[in-house]
Structures are given as structure tokens and as C-alpha cells.
């Protein structure tokens, strides 16, 4: 039993969710607005380049999504992988943690690269 | 001894299924989304070629599907935050319906603007 | 039990026989008016196969010992009338899910009560020497919250229907957490912080996904999901305040 780990992952999951909710709402509204008339690289860049606001917005988005997605994936793998009841559970739990960590880091790297490219 | 869908056939369980499926789909989509955006780093033309491909009706429909999943995951997440952090409310089923309605409305708004 | 057979004639009852690797066997039981699933199982044991193992005690929904899986859903068989659950004259009765099968319809409740203990589901008296009755206002929010577990009779239905228990064998489950929530809110208890810490440890309250199947199926009408949400909220705040 990993003592307090699950509690802290819950705390991180819910805080990142609370951060993401308003960001997603703005993201959805932006999508619906900009999808009119099609997208182009020039149009996207004209909106985002040099904008500290969008850089901060999407920087925070990427960080929160990395945390939120990683914890969620870890839970899904631990609960739904076929080894749930088997003797390999401990090793599998560690594997789920590693997979989640790799996912979170990938999102951070890809995400900040994208934010850097657009702003 | 497998238990069939039987005891799971109630709104809160379906809401969970939607939350899990949408969460997994969004997690798998996100790296692709970020990778494509970063194409603009060295070559805006590459991003443009990709964006031209997304103008096809099938891709637009798939995009709308992702928008619905995003809206559903957000609405479902807000419902769970309210469930866990506010005093218990008897209208849980109504909240599930409101979340589903919100997701569908967002998807329709996206489609109306996309075509 | 002496009611005349009803016009429908016979009921086909499929009953799980054996241990985890057992199988369903089919029995024919005469239908009776107001017959419960427990009546049908009892008929099989008394008239067809006396080796059938199952549990019951009170037959009126007080003791909680006759919980079984009826057509895929956990139920008190003494409070489940055949006419409500039979499909084309058939009923399928299996042992409760998520617990080791001893034999036939009897499960081993040990893991259920071990987890109850792990969630620290026992009252801790406050300082010795306390005299007189504790005064608890019936209207206070904590007293009302404590109602959650007071009515629980530990039948295990919520534990059997919970998918998180099935997916995560360490999860303590709805009943134990529901009980913990009562003690966390019991102003007479001497270690309320200890109850909260135990409920939040490991695969405790935070493993719950709010499927709400426990609330949907609790025969007593309790809502463990609401209790667990209360524990999550309280443990969240305690963690941020640096509680050990």
C-alpha cells in the first residue's frame, strides 16, 4: 500500500482539473470562433505570435494537461490492464507509473515546443 | 462469473464510461495535436498542407467528435468536482443530463461554423 | 409456505454450484404466490438437493445474510420476489461478486470485514473517565452526516456491485468507507483524525470513481458515494493543511 501517494495524486488530479476547466472552455470557444472560414498557419500565428497572454494561457494548459493526463492514464492502466488480479500486480503498478511519467514528460516537451513555435 | 451490463445500467455509470473513454481518447490525441502545431516552427507551409487536409468533411466530422469528447470530459469533470467538493446534491442525474446536453450543443456549434 | 401453487406452474432456477470453478445447475421449483428468491433456493435445498450451501437468517430484510447475485445484480434474496425478477419463468442465482466463494451460494465475507477494520471502522472511546451521556444535538450537521453508516447492516451488496473493488482488489469498498464517514462525524469518537487518515490511506476513499452503483443498489437506501465524497473532501483539505 503506497500510503499517502494515492491521496496526493488525487489532490494533484483535482487541482489540475480545476485549472483545466476554464482553460478548456476558452479553448472550445476559440475553436468554434476560428474554425469559420478555415484555418491557416498565418492566421494562427498572427493571433498567437508575440502574445504573452496566449503564451501564458497555453503554457499553463500544457502543464496542467501533462499532470492530469498522466495521473488519469496511470489509473486506467492499473485498473483495466489484464493483470489486475494477478501476482504481477506490484510490478504492473510500477510499470503504470513509469508509463504515466513518460506520457507526462512527452506532453511537457511536445507542448512547450508547440507553444514556443506559435508565440 | 462475469456480471453483465445489468447492474451498471444507470446514468452515473454511463457518465463514468463517457468520462473514461473521452479522457483516454483526449490523452492519445494530445501528443499528435501538439506535434502538428510545432510543425510551424521551421516551416509554416508544412502546417498549411496539414491544415488543408483537415478541411475534408470526414476530418472535420472527426474533429467535431473530438470537440464533443473535450466538452463532455470538461462537463463531466466539473460535475465530479461539484459532487466531491460541494455538499451532496440530489440532482446528480439532472447534472449528468446537463453535461451531455452541453457537449452535444458544443459539437453542433462547431459543426455549424466548420461547414 | 403452504400457499397454493399459482397458475404459472413451474419456475426454472439456475443456481451456481461449486467453488470459483463451479457452474450453474438448473432446478425446477413450483411457483407460489409472493414467492421470494430465497423461498425458491430453500425449496431446492429441502426438496431436491440437501447439499446446496447458502446463507440466510431472518428472512425479513433485517440481518443481511441472504445477499446473492440474482440475474446479474446483487440483492437480498428474502426481499426479492420471484415475479419481479423472473424472465420467462427463469431466475439465475449466483454468489455475491468480489468475494471468494466457499461453496455454491455462500461466500467468504472475511476480506469485506478485514477491509472494514483497515478503514478503522470501529468506535474509539474518548478520554477515560468521561462521565454521563454525550449530548449530541439531533439536528447538528455532523449528527446528520453520521446517519450514513448507522443504518448499514453490512450485507455486502455495495461491495459486490462496485466495479472499483473488482478492478482494484486493495480498494476498501463502499461499506467500510461509509462506516468510516460515520465515525469521522461522531463527536463522541476519540480519534476522528485517525479515522480520516485510515480512510484516505492507500486504495481508500480516493480510489472511488463515483459510479454510484452502491447507492443505486443499497437495499437500505444508503448513499455510500455521498459518504465517500465527504471523506475525499475532508482528506483533501487535511492534506493541504499538512495533516500527517
State the helicity of chain A in percent bands: over 70%
- What would you call the structural class of chain C? alpha+beta
Number of strands of chain A: 0
Largest interface: A-B, 37 and 36 residues
**What about the largest sheet of chain A?**
none
User: Any low-confidence stretches of chain A, pLDDT <50, length ≥5?
Assistant: none
Reading the helices and strands of chain A in chain order gives HHHH
Into how many domains do the coordinates of chain C divide?
A: 2
The chain-level structural class of chain A is mainly alpha
Main sheet of chain C: which strands, in order across?
2-1-5-3-4
Determine the strand fraction of chain A and express it as a percent band. Answer: under 5%
State mean pLDDT of chain C (0 to 100 scale): 91
Order of helices and strands of chain C: EEHEEHEEEHHHHHHHH
Task: Give the overall average pLDDT of chain A.
Answer: 89
Q: Note the beta-strand portion of chain C.
A: 15-25%
Radius of gyration of chain A: 18 Å
Classified by CATH, the class of chain A is Mainly Alpha
Tags for this entry?
heterotrimer, A: 119 residues, mainly alpha, 3 helical TM bundles of succinate and fumarate reductases, B: 115 residues, 4 helices, 77% helix
Question: Would you give an account of this structure?
Answer:
- Chain A is an all-alpha fold and 119 residues long.
- Chain A has helices at residues 5-34, 41-48, 52-80, 89-118.
- The longest helix of chain A has 30 residues, at 5-34.
- In chain A, 29% of the residues are buried.
- Chain B is mostly helical.
- Chain B has one domain (10-114): Up-down Bundle (3 helical TM bundles of succinate and fumarate reductases).
- Chain B has helices spanning 11-37, 44-53, 57-85, 92-114.
- In chain B, helix 3 packs antiparallel against helix 4.
- The radius of gyration of chain B is 18 Å and the shape is elongated.
- Chain C has two domains: 5-106, Ubiquitin-like (UB roll) (Roll), CATH 3.10.20.30; 109-240, Orthogonal Bundle (Fumarate Reductase Iron-sulfur Protein, Chain B, domain 2), CATH 1.10.1060.10.
- Chain C is built from ten helices and seven strands.
- In chain C, the strands form two sheets. Chain C has a five-stranded mixed beta sheet with strand order 2-1-5-3-4. A two-stranded antiparallel ribbon of chain C has the order 6-7.
- The longest helix of chain C has 17 residues, at 224-240.
- The model of chain C has no long low-confidence stretch (mean pLDDT 91).
- The A-B interface holds A 14, 17-18, 20-21, 24-25, 27-28, 31-33, 35-36, 38-42, 44-45, 62, 65, 69, 72-73, 76, 103, 106-107, 110-111, 113-114, 116-118 and B 20, 23-24, 26-27, 30-31, 34-35, 37-41, 44-45, 47-48, 51, 54-55, 67, 70-71, 74, 77-78, 80-81, 84-85, 106, 109-110, 113-114.
Amino acid at each position: 500500500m503506497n500510503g499517502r501517494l494515492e491521496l496526493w495524486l488525487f489532490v494533484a488530479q483535482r487541482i489540475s482539473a480545476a485549472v483545466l476547466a476554464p482553460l478548456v472552455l476558452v479553448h472550445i470557444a476559440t475553436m468554434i470562433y476560428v474554425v469559420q472560414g478555415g484555418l491557416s498557419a498565418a492566421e494562427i500565428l498572427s493571433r498567437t505570435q508575440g502574445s504573452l497572454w496566449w503564451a501564458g494561457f497555453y503554457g499553463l494548459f500544457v502543464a496542467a494537461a501533462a499532470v492530469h493526463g498522466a495521473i488519469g492514464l496511470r489509473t486506467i492502466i492499473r485498473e483495466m490492464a489484464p493483470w489486475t488480479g494477478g501476482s504481477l500486480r506490484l510490478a504492473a503498478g510500477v510499470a503504470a507509473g513509469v508509463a504515466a511519467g513518460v506520457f507526462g514528460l512527452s506532453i511537457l516537451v511536445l507542448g512547450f515546443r508547440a507553444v514556443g513555435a506559435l508565440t | 462469473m462475469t456480471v453483465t451490463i445489468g447492474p451498471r445500467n444507470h446514468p452515473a455509470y454511463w457518465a463514468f464510461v463517457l468520462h473514461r473513454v473521452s479522457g483516454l481518447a483526449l490523452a492519445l490525441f494530445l501528443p499528435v495535436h501538439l506535434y502538428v502545431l510545432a510543425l510551424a516552427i521551421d516551416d509554416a507551409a508544412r502546417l498549411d498542407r496539414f491544415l488543408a487536409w483537415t478541411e475534408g468533411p470526414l476530418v472535420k466530422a472527426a474533429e467535431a467528435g473530438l470537440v464533443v469528447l473535450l466538452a463532455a470530459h470538461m462537463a463531466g469533470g466539473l460535475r465530479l468536482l461539484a459532487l466531491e467538493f460541494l455538499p451532496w446534491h440530489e440532482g446528480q442525474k439532472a447534472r449528468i443530463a446537463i453535461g451531455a446536453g452541453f457537449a452535444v450543443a458544443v459539437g453542433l456549434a462547431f459543426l455549424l461554423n466548420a461547414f | 409456505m403452504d400457499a397454493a401453487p399459482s397458475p404459472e406452474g413451474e419456475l426454472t432456477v439456475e443456481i451456481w454450484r461449486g467453488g470459483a470453478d463451479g457452474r450453474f445447475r438448473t432446478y425446477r421449483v413450483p411457483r407460489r404466490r409472493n414467492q421470494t428468491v430465497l423461498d425458491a433456493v430453500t425449496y431446492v435445498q429441502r426438496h431436491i438437493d440437501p447439499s446446496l450451501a447458502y446463507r440466510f437468517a431472518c428472512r425479513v430484510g433485517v440481518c443481511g445474510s441472504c445477499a446473492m447475485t440474482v440475474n446479474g445484480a446483487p440483492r437480498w434474496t428474502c426481499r426479492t420476489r420471484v415475479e419481479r425478477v423472473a424472465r420467462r419463468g427463469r431466475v439465475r442465482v449466483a454468489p455475491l461478486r468480489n468475494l471468494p466463494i466457499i461453496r455454491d451460494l455462500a461466500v467468504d465475507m472475511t476480506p469485506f470485514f478485514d477491509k472494514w477494520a483497515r478503514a478503522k471502522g470501529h468506535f474509539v472511546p474518548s478520554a477515560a473517565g468521561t462521565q454521563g451521556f454525550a449530548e449530541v444535538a439531533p439536528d447538528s450537521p455532523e449528527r446528520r452526516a453520521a446517519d450514513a453508516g448507522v443504518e448499514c447492516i453490512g450485507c455486502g451488496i455495495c461491495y459486490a456491485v462496485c466495479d472499483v473493488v473488482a478492478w482494484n482488489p486493495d480498494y476498501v469498498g463502499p461499506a467500510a468507507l461509509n462506516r468510516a464517514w460515520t465515525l469521522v462525524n461522531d463527536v463522541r469518537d476519540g480519534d476522528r483524525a485517525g479515522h480520516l487518515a485510515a480512510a484516505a490511506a492507500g486504495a481508500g476513499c480516493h480510489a472511488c470513481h463515483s459510479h454510484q452503483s452502491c447507492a443505486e443498489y443499497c437495499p437500505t437506501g444508503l448513499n455510500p458515494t455521498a459518504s465517500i465524497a465527504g471523506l475525499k473532501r475532508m482528506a483533501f483539505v487535511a492534506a493541504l493543511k499538512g495533516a500527517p
